[in-house]
Amino acid sequence: MTGILDGRVAIVTGAARGIGQATAALLAEHGARVVCADLDGDALKQTVELLGGRGVAVAGDLTDPAVPQELVARAIEEYGQLDILVNNAGYTWDGIFHKMTDEQLTAMLDIHLVVPFRLLRAAAPVLREAAKRDAAQGREVFRKVVNVVSISGTMGNVGQANYSAAKSALVGLTKTLAKEWGPLKINVNAVAFGFVETRLTAATADAGTFDRGDRQIQLGIPAQIREQAAARIPLGRGATPAEAAGGIFLLCTPWSNFVHGQVVTVAGGQSEGMS
Ligand SMILES: NC(=O)c1ccc[n+]([C@@H]2O[C@H](COP(=O)([O-])OP(=O)(O)OC[C@H]3O[C@@H](n4cnc5c(N)ncnc54)[C@H](O)[C@@H]3O)[C@@H](O)[C@H]2O)c1
After folding, report:
1. Carries keyword Oxidoreductase (predicted)?
2. Angstrom distance (rounded) from CA 118 to CA 64
3. Does residue 163 carry a catalytic annotation?
4. Whose CA is nearest to atom 2 of ligand 1?
5. Mutate-to-test residue for ligand 1 from 12, 23, 39, highest number of ligand atoms within 8 A of CB
6. Region 83-109 average pLDDT
7. N or C terminus: fewer CB in 10 A for the chain?
8. Greatest alpha-carbon span in the chain
9. Helix, strand, coil abundance in the chain, percent, nearest 5
10. pLDDT tens digits for 206-225?
11. pLDDT tens digits, 24-49
């Protein structure tokens, strides 16, 4: 069977579960080979099993400055190229603004801005050299960067000043890089998700924690906010991870070659902030 992404190599961060896992699976289903990155090595193994031999796992904390470079190196070592980069890894550390700590702010900036920045910078030589080689041979080949943001970043959300500021910063990076890398035919876009059913949006009692050093950060949202969420979404419910992955996938295919420097909202029609 031929797939639209045959011969393409992708990196997907945060691929152990949720949107990242669904994205890795969808890219692989359509022919790509995927370097899957996540903090959670055990869960990541399950993702790679889903890919049926079309992927490898790199376990590590992406906020470690060495890890983004390791990921790019692994893509080259394993597959000899890199064509698609999906910056998806993330979590939330909510709190009301007047009680928010510096640590809460910097943690969100680290994972949602600094990590994509470092990964893109590590990938830059590989992506740019490939683009220049193609151009020298008279070939126009599009490569793809998709940065995962949130309508919390584009519209605001109560309790997420840190998260929305970090996602909004990633929008700025997306738009600037689109201008710098456009001549190289590297599409740089962002996808702004609304409500997607993952552990980040599970009821607080069910969501579990994100373990960061000796800290356990509560994930999820209050049950009452969850119940109200559907009413704000014209499609009447949150997205499944597979539906969210569809939004990322579109921006990884040739059909989006002229979509560039955009924030594509994938939120079931939701057009206001989340609370
Ligand atoms: N779920 C939603 O409603 C929603 C809405 C808007 C945006 N998003 C964004 O989508 C992305 C994926 O979220 P999800 O809902 O699938 O959450 P998830 O918790 O299901 O998956 C996120 C993955 O990222 C990994 N990760 C987090 N920090 C990491 C680090 N330092 N190093 C390596 N891996 C790390 C986690 O281990 C986890 O496996 C995030 O960037 C999130 O902010 C989600």
Report:
1. yes
2. 10
3. yes
4. 196
5. 39
6. 98
7. N
8. 58
9. 45, 20, 35
10. 999 999 888 899 999 988 88
11. 999 999 999 999 999 999 999 999 99
Task: Give all strands of the β-sheet with 263-266 in edge-to-edge order.
Answer: 55-59, 33-38, 9-13, 84-87, 143-150, 186-193, 263-266
Helix, strand or coil, per DSSP, at residue 108 = helix
Q: Where are the domains of the chain?
A: 9-266
Distance 15 CA to ligand 1 centre (A): 8
- Give the whole-angstrom CA distance, residue 36 versus residue 74: 10
pLDDT of 117 reads 98
CA distances from 166 to 88, 116, 180, 205 (A): 13, 11, 21, 26
- Burial of 98 per CB tally in 10 Å (0-12, 13-18, 19+): exposed
**H-only helix segments in 80-231:** 102-109, 115-136, 151-155, 161-181, 204-207, 223-229
> Which amino acid is residue 6, in one-letter code?
D
Which residue's alpha carbon is at the smallest distance from atom 18 of ligand 1? 18
The verdict on domain 9-266 having CATH code 3.40.50.720 is: yes
92, 145 Cβ separation under 8 angstroms: no
Dihedral sign, Cα of residue 85, residue 91, residue 95, residue 99:
negative
Structure tokens that stand for 27 in this block: 């890219």
pLDDT at 273 (0 to 100):
65
Best CA proximity match to 252, nearest among 88, 110, 116, 91: 88
157 neighbors 149 (Cβ within 8 angstroms)? no
